[in-house]
Amino acid sequence: MKRRSFLYSSAALVGAGMLGRVDSKSDQIHPHRVHAASLMAECATRFLSALDPDQRGKATFAFDTDERMNWHFIPKERKGLPLREMTPYQKHLASALLAAGLSQTGYIKAVTIMSLEDVLKIIENDSGEHRNPEKYYFSVFGTPSDSGTWGYRVEGHHLSQNYTVVNGKVIDGPSFFGANPAEVRQGPRKGLRTLPGEDDLGIELIHTLDEQQQRVAIVDPTAYRDILTAASRKAALQGQPSGLSASKMNARQFDVLMALMEEYARNVPEELAEGRMEQINKAGRNISFAWSGGINRGDQHYYRVHAPSFLIELDDTQDNANHIHSVWRDSAGDFGEDVLRQHYHASHQTKYNYTYQLTRNPNQNSSQPASPPASPFRTHLPC
Questions:
Q1: Residue 84: alpha-carbon gap to chain centroid
Q2: CB 139 within 8 A of CB 79
Q3: Whole-angstrom distance, CA of residue 163 vs CA of residue 268
Q4: Cα–Cα distances in Å, from 39 out to 36, 43, 110, 191?
Q5: What is the value of pTM for the model shown?
Q6: Secondary-structure breakdown of the chain: helix, strand, coil percentages, each rounded to the nearest 5
Q7: Distance from CA of residue 184 to its chain's centroid?
Q8: What is the 8-class DSSP label of residue 66?
């Protein structure tokens, strides 16, 4: 069985009983499944209901606040409610909210990333104030509902998961996972690797390329110091060389590339993962793979996979190439921008048509054009 077929089959087995697709056929086959938007709304509502007024004040924000797009992956103070300010039962409900936006695999990665703060605390002899596995913050933007417009974020050092819900559609990005150390090399957890798939498949892919292909794919012999898009609000590369086109890869090489992309796609629940896989399949061979740095294990390195609708980046350069940053970005849809734009346009157009009909002169000939009302969009309209 080919790698892709095996991965698809495995994902289907692992995903059984989890979130379902949004198509009607899937609903008929699995009527018991809960859609991602409904599960997220339920988990967010239960979490918020368990908070006292002061905690709720920290955890909640208006949907249209600038804070919703103020994301980052470095260790710093953040807005939101941190785990360390929650009671044990509140932490359980917060964990459920995190899990609602991730697959089982993605959730394991997320909580392992959190736990690495304790490893760093020991390595750096930290007091626990800077390195703390409970300094992860939960923020809810707007009012959770199955069909409204709202979102939430779970974020701390090396973890930033951002979700936007618009009319029951979930947009999952930016989605950042990091690991420091990438491999624990001392202590009782020695040998632990949090993101092995993301790193190993990238190295495997660069090694499947022949010498001529590598010359095209390797855009810089020195590894980029970090992911190029950093914590930007929009995923955009500025004049960077594209690397090797997937159209120039043979079947085996493309198979590894597909496995690499699927590693990222399957970090989220099945319903959302299928959306990512749809983007991948739609891109076909219109995908490029770029590399910088050394190609052997232990070398500082960076790679990216770039398609018209999405971008994947990974770097492993800090701390002697034992410190990973990885991210999935939606080129047009991070923070739901593309869907929100369509939603607001449709809502405004409906409001405009309604107002237009109300302001027509009833004695006016219907065949005669009427003047539309002045500035119908001067104020923000509710959606």
A1: 24
A2: yes
A3: 11
A4: 5, 6, 19, 35
A5: 0.82
A6: 40, 20, 40
A7: 25
A8: G
> Is residue 37 within 8 Å of 148, Cβ to Cβ?
no
Provide, rounded to the nearest whole percent, the portion of the chain with pLDDT above 70: 79
**Phi and psi angles of residue 35, each rounded to the nearest 5 degrees, phi first:** -70, 155
* CB neighbours of residue 138 within 10 Å: 29
Residues 78-115 have pLDDT tens digits of 999 999 999 999 999 999 999 999 999 999 999 999 99
Give DSSP secondary structure letters for 120-186. Answer: HHHHTT--SSSS-TT--EEEEES---SSSEEEEEEEETTEEEEEEEETTEEEEEEEEEEESSSB--S
Instruction: Name the helix (H) or strand (E) containing 318.
Output: helix 318-321
Q: How far is CA 208 from CA 201, 211, 256, 313, in A?
A: 10, 10, 8, 19
pLDDT tens per residue, range 309-344? 999 999 999 999 999 999 999 987 899 876 676 655
